[in-house]
Amino acid sequence: MVMRFFPRSIRARLTAIATAIAALVLFATSTFMLVTVPDNLRDVVRDRVEVSVRRVAGDARAGELSTAIQVPARVHFLEVVTPSGDVIATTPGRAVHWKIKAFRPAEPDKVYVKEIWAPHERNAGETHFLVMAMSVPTPNGLVAVYGASSLTDVDRAIRWFEIQTFIVAPLILASVMGITWLVVGFALRPVERIRSKLAEITGQDLSRRVPVPDTGDEITDLAATTNDTLDRLERSAETQRRFVADASHELRSPIAALRTQLEVANAIPEETDWRATGARALATVDRLTGIIDELLMLARLDAGAVAPRRVVDMCRLAVEQVRRRKDAGVAIVPDLCASAPVHGSPVQLDRILTNLLDNATRHADTRIDLEVAVEEGRRVVVTVTDDGEGIAPEDRERVFERFFRLDSAKAKDQSGSGLGLPLSREIALSHGGTLTIADHAPGARFVLVLPRYQGA
């Protein structure tokens, strides 16, 4: 219910809040001033008249009173009157109206104060006076001392202040509202540009980015965070597109070959060697399964997925690889250290060794050297070297591109997918390591570097 009456726009809300705060401050200030200022102004007049009345009363008490009393500035008249109404002393040229003289002090030596409206001059309009009266004993008896000062200036100041309060204050509030509206609108202009740019970005084109203002404030952080989010979305979308493209590219050929084999066998069943056809079909299915496994693992790595990890001894993985390949036809010569602990996924790390040794087996002539060592106590280095024809320097980075295969590799083995080395590098990178090709003759040398596990 509260939100229904509260503006939805941030600009309107901030303007309303600023105006409300300004109104509250103006109300409190104006109330305080309206209560205190009139009394303070009257106190100034009262003090001025009281000083003059007490001075004249002192002269009368001492019997030193002059018949002509000179008044200080802003005191309009002073007059001394007997109880019978006779004027003993007065301010020359100032006539005291009877309304003022009707104000009688009740007790001697006590100052009485009263505000009276009376004519200032004879036949003049009434003036607002602050009158003080004091009864004082003299050598000739009791007399009353009167003093008065006009409150016209005080009334004028109070009236002007009230005008300021009730007319200028709304103008101030209107100014605060207008300025806040303009300032907030200017401050939110970058946000509107970000919003409009985001509205233009679609799933078909995630390459566009929102403008980042150089103000260095929260809006800059918002724009930078938005662009980081768009970067992640673009990478995710690109990963999905690449996975679809990779899958369609690599699966098309074996599926087509399998279909052709089955169609030919079905067309001439009496001449078909079904055992051989089944073996070829199974081999094709095995190849498809391997391709799909590699594509799925690449997709998970591209998406930043982290497989379960634990401490893995690369030496033990190497020993197991050598044991599985003792009948592979190419001798594997291991050179292993005592222990090479790495914190990682045992499945993925074993997959790197499998891919590297499979690649070396396809290209080696007589032997493969497998070395696992710990360097400087901080790095585990795995080296796989074959004695084949090697890889030209200009192709050493291209072999890590997906589906890229050298002509020599295609000639030796048609079943390769071109995904083993790219997958191995992605696994190495996800474990904080590297996979490169080093200079070596004859043959090729792959160097895998991983951070050594430093735990107890």
List keywords for this structure.
kinase, Heat Shock Protein 90, 11 helices, five-stranded antiparallel beta sheet, alpha+beta, five-stranded mixed beta sheet, Helix Hairpins, EC 2.7.13.3, 456 residues, 3 domains, 51% helix
* First-residue to last-residue Cα separation: 61 Å
Largest sheet: 5 strands, antiparallel
Quaternary organization: single chain
SSE succession: HHEEHEEEHHHHEHEEHEEHHEE
Number of helices: 11
- Helix content percent band: 40-55%
Flag low-confidence runs. Answer: none
Strand content: 15-25%
**Based on helices, strands and strand pairing, what is the structural class?**
alpha+beta
Number of domains: 3
Q: What's the mean pLDDT score? A: 83
Strand order of the largest sheet: 2-1-5-4-3
Structure summary, number of beta strands: 12
Indicate the radius of gyration in whole angstroms. 52 Å
Task: Describe the global form.
Answer: rod-shaped
InterPro entries: HAMP_dom, HATPase_C_sf, HATPase_dom, His_kinase_dom, HisK_dim/P_dom, HisK_dim/P_sf, Sig_transdc_His_kin-like_C, TCS_sensor_his_kinase
Subcellular location: Cell membrane
Organism: Nonomuraea mesophila
Protein name: histidine kinase
